[in-house]
């Protein structure tokens, strides 16, 4: 079920205690949860789940959607802003990077999730020159790889900055704007403006770019430090997609159900991390043995479009960025 036995038991009991999931006459709530997790954790089709659990296809289908609906309540509970307190067991490298960016409270980025859409809509979902269809998902996570905001369902062709702009100016989105003096780290697809710190454009940025030659200019030193700290969201996406293969090859559900499945995957990811449950995928990620560059390929070829934030906000953030870059240069 792509999680430990302890995590599974805790998850089932949590849903039962919240009255989100109940046993029926012939199926326990634990079995309902197991059917759901097998489906999204191994991308199993209903007929395979039917064979494994020995229930009718109609029963499997009904239980899957019952758990998925409960997951939406769970997501509202666990995908929420968290405190910006430093992580107790953070590495020395992480602590030094946080000192470079004292106002950073997390990282923001988009990711592509495979989607199945009707043929007359496929052009809008063929993201970034690829043949398959995708939905664009905007996520924000803190430095403990816990997602604090998720917005799913955008067409794959939509540029990341457009998605952020639409979400930011949508009063129903609930996006947690950083408080004054704080900001999210984001890549060059976004505008460097109040609350969102982006790297210098037309300058080396991706971590792979610095393996051949160290940073030389103040802009490169800034970009290298920025990329190292912002990398947390790429690693978080890497863990998420490694745990849930359905995100790489979506089942042919209606698009609204596909979007809800994505949100459910984020919610379970947060649950495992927040409850401090022993988990092999997170252990491997914390050791930097996997996932370090899981998103680089998606972002290399993006064009850049400025967002309409206001010239004063852009100027203020540019000054702050220059101050950090100058400090990095003087420290070396």
From TrEMBL:
Domain DUF8040: where?
Answer: 1-72
Q: Which UniProt keywords apply?
A: Hydrolase, Metal-binding, Nuclease, Nucleus
Instruction: Give GO terms: molecular function aspect only.
Output: hydrolase activity; metal ion binding; nuclease activity
List cofactor names only.
a divalent metal cation
* GO CC terms, sorted: nucleus
Tell me where it mainly resides. nucleus
InterPro entries, from UniProt? Answer: DUF8040, HARBI1-like, HARBI1_dom
List the protein's name. Answer: DDE Tnp4 domain-containing protein
The cellular location(s) given in this protein's UniProt record come to: Nucleus
**What does UniProt list as this organism's lineage?**
Eukaryota, Viridiplantae, Streptophyta, Embryophyta, Tracheophyta
Give every DDE Tnp4 domain span: 108-270
Q: Which Pfam families match?
A: DDE_Tnp_4, DUF8040
Q: Which PANTHER family match?
A: MYB_SANT-LIKE DOMAIN, HARBINGER TRANSPOSASE-DERIVED NUCLEASE DOMAIN-CONTAINING PROTEIN, PTHR22930
Family per UniProt? Answer: Belongs to the HARBI1 family.
